[in-house]
Specification:
With 427 residues, the protein is of the alpha/beta class. The protein contains 13 helices and 20 strands. It has three domains: 149 residues, 3-Layer(bba) Sandwich (FAD/NAD(P)-binding domain), CATH 3.50.50; 103 residues; 88 residues, D-Amino Acid Oxidase, subunit A, domain 2 (D-Amino Acid Oxidase, Chain A, domain 2, 2-Layer Sandwich), CATH 3.30.9.10. The chain binds flavin-adenine dinucleotide (FAD).
């Protein structure tokens, strides 16, 4: 039985290990941290005795790879699936606007939903709809030379449409602003969301903490299929001979009995193990700040809200507490926790009826390198799964999946790396 070492236990590493163990490989997954999940995990907050995520994660109905993975590890019941798209947006002074697909059949349901989105004028809705219907006809080559802002401006999308629609979708899907993101990546995502059927635009949310929702199930699947998951062990270096990795040095031992390796660690972590692994790529990162706020009384009734034209992007309602998400947060991330809390409360009081007096406790989590910024430069230079070392394969959301830095990209990369190994053995 061929043996594969998988480095990293985030979505990419867990997916590789699940597909390889399913195919009968002897897999050892090695994770540096004391828990699985990478950038998507949950933990017990001791002050409040609540399980919270390091940051709220949203999946979408168009996350084909992720939904297939979740089904495979039998974790489907741990997620809430919207039947139809429904998002409540807030403007200042408690103005509430609904974006929802109507009851009629696809694609009319989405079209009617957009036409009823009253955050913008009727003429603006027609312009928006026209732009969305044009999506299949934009030249890919031209899109690769533009950022999102240049592209949508050329498509006659005015400031109001950008604030109430494009800005929110871009920051949600790409965690960056429309000036930095590649128009090509954004167009690809929009086609997946809006032009592929009824459920693609729906939101899927974990029903429990992230670790309970998928990490435990993935670990169980790997172990039931005779794989091993090892925590708190860091890969430090590779020994290379004749274009192959011959040995791996970890914080605990030296490993030589393997046929293949999949590295799923982020680029900055891979550089420590293999300094010249991917030299052409200059990745910039975007931060996400999550503010978990426990309430004496919860005034929110919806599961989540999007805020139009605010420093705060989303509010997720977990009953006893809410999670406020600031995406694209590089400008705020160095501020003190008190300053960030002040900004958040200022926005919440401006947009909702909630007052500071309702707050019992709060906790701020800053993820400085939450996602990479999908600029045109990066998109062109992402490495593929195969490397010049015959037995080393790469995965991770940053590798070449054509997707932005998301769970879906991580899962897709993990599946591709596993399939490349299986194909190598078969051939
Ligand atoms: C706050 C936040 C919110 C987000 N929201 C969303 C969202 O709503 N929707 C969405 O789709 N995506 C979201 N993302 C992005 C998503 O979390 C990532 O794209 C995805 O988790 C990346 O998975 P990965 O396996 O590629 O990498 P990682 O999760 O980074 O996993 C890599 C693993 O490798 C381990 N490692 C590193 N070095 C070593 C070493 N030397 N030896 C052994 N192990 C090592 C790390 O500890 C880590 O566990 C969000 C990210 C953050 C931080």
């Amino acid at each position: 039985m061929k043996k594969c070492i998988v480095i990293g236990g985030g979505f990419a590493g867990l997916t590789s290990a699940v597909y390889l163990t399913k195919a009968g490989y002897n897999v050892e997954l090695i994770e540096a941290s004391s828990k699985l999940g990478g950038r998507a995990y949950s933990f017990l907050d001791k002050n409040t005795n609540t399980i919270i995520d390091n940051g709220q994660h949203i999946l979408m109905g168009c996350y084909d790879e992720t939904l297939k993975f979740i089904k495979l590890i039998k974790a489907e019941d741990n997620f809430h699936f919207q039947k139809r798209l429904r998002v409540i947006f807030l403007k200042p002074n408690f103005e509430t606007l609904v974006l929802k697909s109507s009851l009629v059949f696809y694609p009319l349901n989405l079209l009617i939903g957009l036409l009823n989105y009253k955050a913008i004028t009727f003429i603006e809705r027609i312009k928006l709809l026209r732009f969305i219907l044009m999506l299949p006809f934009f030249s890919k080559k031209k899109l690769e030379r533009m950022n999102v802002s240049e592209w949508i401006n050329r498509g006659h999308q005015n400031e109001n449409i950008i604030k109430a629609f494009w800005g929110i979708i871009a920051v949600g899907a790409l965690n960056t602003n429309i000036e930095k993101a590649s128009a090509r990546v954004f167009a690809d995502i929009l086609k997946k969301i809006f032009l592929r059927g009824n459920s693609s635009a729906t939101i899927v949310l974990p029903a429990y903490g992230l670790s309970e929702s998928y990490c435990n199930h993935a670990e169980k699947f790997i172990e039931e299929n005779k794989g091993k998951v090892i925590l708190s062990e860091t890969i430090q270096s590779f020994e290379i001979e004749n274009e192959k990795v011959k040995g791996i040095t970890t914080s605990n031992r030296k490993i030589t009995d393997f046929d293949f390796i999949i590295s799923t660690v982020p680029k900055y972590a891979l550089e420590k193990i293999l300094p010249d692994a991917v030299d052409k790529l200059n990745i910039h990162y975007s931060s996400i700040i999550s503010v978990h706020i426990w309430l004496k009384e919860n005034p929110f009734s919806e599961p989540f809200y999007g805020l139009i034209d605010s420093a705060v992007h989303w509010i997720f309602n977990h009953g006893t507490h809410i999670t406020v998400v600031i995406s694209d947060a590089n400008e705020l991330v160095e501020k003190s926790k008190e300053e960030i809390y002040d900004i958040v409360m200022h926005e919440i009081e401006k947009y909702t009826k909630m007052k500071r007096e309702l707050v019992d406790q709060y906790k701020i989590i800053k993820e400085k390198r939450a996602t990479f910024i999908p600029s045109n430069d990066i998109i062109k230079n992402r490495p593929s799964s195969r490397t010049k070392l015959m037995n080393l394969f790469l995965a991770g959301d940053w590798t070449d999946t054509s997707l932005p830095s998301t769970i879906e990209s991580a899962v897709k990369s993990g599946r591709i790396a596993a399939e490349n190994i299986i194909a190598t053995v078969v051939n």
